[in-house]
Design brief:
Length: about 400
Amino acid sequence: MSRKDHLTFRANRSQGRHGWLRLTPAYSVHLVEELVAQCGPEELVLDPFCGTGTTALVCAQAGVRCHTVDINPFLVWLTNAKCASYSASDIKAARDVLAAALNAMGQSSDHSWLPAIKDISKWWEADTLSLLSNLFVQLDHPSLAAPVRDLLKVIFCRSVIELASVSFGHQSMSFTRRTSTAALVQIAPEQRVSATFQRIAAEVLNSAKEPLPDAAIAAFTGDARTLAEVLPQTGYTRVITSPPYPNRMSYIRELRPYMYWLGYLTSGRQAGELDWQAIGGTWGCATSNLMKWQHSDCYPVPYDGFHALVATVTERSRVLGVYIDKYFHDVVEHIASLKQVLSPGAKVFYVVGNSKFYDVLLPTQDIYAAIFAAQGFGDICVTPIRKRTSKKELFEYIVSASLPD
């Protein structure tokens, strides 16, 4: 089985609104389109793990109603922004405000502001950071209409990460080493920043013109383990989602720069506490909290051999053993919560990936299938869809199931 890059986040970067902001673990728009194509006009789709809003936006483009949930308020904002309709006047206003801000960004300002990112100089060079600070104050001005500010914030987020000293050549983001070697052609910081913002603005504003069918799309901030408390209704007929994989990859690590700039985070402690609330979160204090977590018998994992797998990993690393135990405990709680908001006969499609810890292969797809079976779902099917880019034993699967009528 091949990697099939068209079924990963890489395929999303050239897909209009889907490419507004990247998240490495995001799943492919092509895969979601195939699943949404099976929906009728009467369907009400739920994605309990919103991420960057791939499911919601595909549904919006297809005219299918969709609600989605995420524990991270930044991702909820991003999804609602990606799925919104923008008027010609909104787009023109965003373009005009950006042009004026770029013209004035080199001027000194008494209102400049920097987010409280630790070691911020590792992210951006001093000259670039000063320009970004001046730009942000103008682009996020409270006098601007909400749709205009949303477009400008998307452009800002895309631009700051392209101007940062980071690389996405690995599974997650890493810092790049700056060199003192003089370039053949020196580009002034103002020119580089302006060119980056103008290029990205052209992409974002052009795709914002795309008319969306009149479908009810909404993203809500909340916990996937308590869906009935978060969602405005029940009766969802289809679930299309990709939950976090049990691989200790922290989504918030990649999202931090955006969240600090837009005010969703003001400290590293907040980032860790938010990741601790997420299923599979491991950033900062989320890892130390694992060692205080107490196993509960309320949501046992109904997979033969699960405790033996956890015990084997625990022999090498207690924190990893607890991580696996808690991850699937949370998944059981999530699926029990999911049942409460589904209609009879609802179909679910979960895109998941297996993991490997030391020499222990964790059959995530089979554990999900066992959980669905224990919760009363039927027609359970595990379908491999692609090989992943890391270890040779790792694959991605669709786990599908349905509730009885």
